[in-house]
TrEMBL record:
Positions of the NADP-dependent oxidoreductase domain: 6-217
Upper lineage: Eukaryota, Metazoa, Ecdysozoa, Arthropoda, Hexapoda
Full protein name: Reductase
InterPro entries: AKR, Aldo/ket_reductase_CS, NAD(P)_OxRdtase_dom_sf, NADP_OxRdtase_dom
Domain of life: Eukaryota
Length: 244
């Protein structure tokens, strides 16, 4: 079993990074994590609240993610983490981390699915030795902030048609899509039957025609993103304003 967790946005100051890890280890009853990720490149005002508020808005901090990453690197010397990574970092942010650090992130965890295939970001990361983990691979159908007119990825005719062809569910097709691209995929479910179904993806393979059809669903960085975290869009380190 692999244990991984995130460094949250309120613990970006370098002096807080190891303290946040120690609290996580204590809460989980573990001596170390296999992987520890900087959850977002932007920081919130430090404190106990996950979403510190001021005047009805999230209170931001100017902490630099490069300084946070340098503190993450030091964790490797403690034995409390086996590897470190990033999440939701864009091209410019990745290149800036690499230019100012000693350790290449093991992982960049990003939203990734056929509406947002992330081809350019994946290619960049692979060229730097950074593995990709895809979150929201099913299009986050249960997200509480969904709009009624948002397109449902699981119901797209292309996805449904490929699923019928292989005798699989649309969800299994979307998971297999990532596997066939060489991407680590982390579908989320609290339903026992769906969890079992999500694992039943190793007895079929998508054809080139299937993959091309799924790639053709791409909608771009803005229209294709289900998890834009819009409440943070004014932060100077917000990652989704760039092309990728």
């Amino acid at each position: 079993m692999i244990f991984w967790e995130y460094l949250w946005n309120t613990s970006h100051p370098p002096a807080l990074v190891e303290k946040a890890l120690d609290l996580t280890l204590s809460n989980l009853g573990l001596e170390y994590l296999d992987l520890y990720l900087v959850h977002w490149p932007f920081a919130f005002k430090e404190g106990d609240a996950l979403f510190p508020m001021e005047d009805g808005r999230i209170a931001f901090s100017d902490d630099d993610y490069v300084d946070t990453w340098k503190a993450m690197e030091k964790l490797l010397l403690t034995g409390k983490v086996r590897s470190i990574g990033i999440s939701n970092f864009n091209k410019q942010q990745i290149e800036r981390v690499l230019a100012n650090s000693l350790v290449v992130p093991a992982i960049n965890q990003i939203e990734c699915h056929p509406f947002l295939n992330q081809n350019k970001l994946i290619k960049l990361c692979e060229s730097k030795g950074i593995k990709i983990t895809a979150y929201s691979p099913l299009g986050s159908p249960d997200r509480p902030f969904a709009n009624p007119d948002d397109p449902v990825l699981l119901e797209q005719p292309v996805v449904v048609g490929i699923a019928k062809k292989h005798g699989k569910t649309p969800g299994q097709v979307l998971i297999r899509y990532q596997i066939d691209r060489g991407i680590i995929v982390i579908p989320k479910s609290v339903n026992q039957e769906r969890i079992k179904s999500n694992f039943d993806v190793f007895n079929f393979k998508l054809t080139k025609e299937d993959m091309d059809a799924l790639q053709g669903l791409e909608r771009g960085n803005k229209a294709g993103r289900y998890v834009p975290f819009s409440a943070t869009a004014e932060h100077k380190h917000y990652p989704f304003n760039d092309e990728y």
